[in-house]
Amino acid sequence: MKDDPVEKSFCTTREAATLLGVSVGTVQLWVENGLLQAWKTTGGHRRVLRESIDSLLHKSPTATPHGSATGAFQTRPLRILVVEDDDILLQLYLFKLSAWPMKPVVSLANNAVSGLLMMGRSNPDLLITDLNMPGMDGFNMLRVLHQTPDLSHTTIVVVSGLDAAGIASHGGIPGGIEVLNKPVPFERLETIASGIALRYQPVTTGD
């Protein structure tokens, strides 16, 4: 039996979710925000263009996760994702964060699209992101994440060279996100991460 070449040009939302390693709801949200190209059949079923899926997959993150799950500080390692287009700063993040006492698993992405893809796949506990980035910037990424219920548990921190007026001129960011100024305040970030890590400490009871 010959393969149908038309079938290879598109996927269902469930097939797209499997290929991208995210939930069906995340795929639907990305379609609505234009990250994925899709259309609806006459029966109302969404079909996602395979080329747009491949395009997302090719925008791979700059580094695989780093870190260790050892130690008694928590029952599982804290998961941190850093999105920053400056590769030198990105490596500095990796060096500094990997040395923290809670030994987090640190993932890196050098653009917002890769950041979104990694968010959908790994559901990090903490996202640290820049705002000014080429292509899709941090502002648009945060607006998409704000509409993604699967990621509502993630603490988000912005580290940017923009001041309050500069952020406002771009339309602002969703509420509840702490904004820190560059140079990167690693001590403040460690305090935030330590607070999140306490959620995973074993609960002990007295005799």
What would you say about this model in short?
By secondary structure, the chain is α/β, with parallel strands linked by helices. It has helices at 13-20, 24-32, 50-58, 87-98, 112-122, 138-146, 164-169, 186-197, and strands at 10-12, 38-40, 46-49, 63-66, 79-83, 105-109, 126-129, 155-160, 178-181.
Topology summary:
Layout: E1 10-12, H1 13-20, H2 24-32, E2 38-40, E3 46-49, H3 50-58, E4 63-66, E5 79-83, H4 87-98, E6 105-109, H5 112-122, E7 126-129, H6 138-146, E8 155-160, H7 164-169, E9 178-181, H8 186-197
Parallel strand pairs: 5-6, 5-7, 7-8, 8-9
Antiparallel strand pairs: 1-3, 2-3, 4-6
Helix pairs in contact: 1-2, 5-6
Given as residue ranges, the uncertain stretches (5+ residues, pLDDT < 50) are 1-7, 60-65, 67-74, 203-207
Helix-residue proportion: 25-40%
Q: Termini separation (Å)?
A: 69 Å
Average the pLDDT over all residues and give the rounded result.
Answer: 81
CATH class of the largest domain: Alpha Beta
Task: Tell me how many strands there are.
Answer: 9
Q: CATH-wise, what's the superfamily of the largest domain?
A: Response regulator
- Residues in β-strands, percent: 15-25%
Class by SSE composition: alpha/beta
In CATH, the architecture of the largest domain is 3-Layer(aba) Sandwich
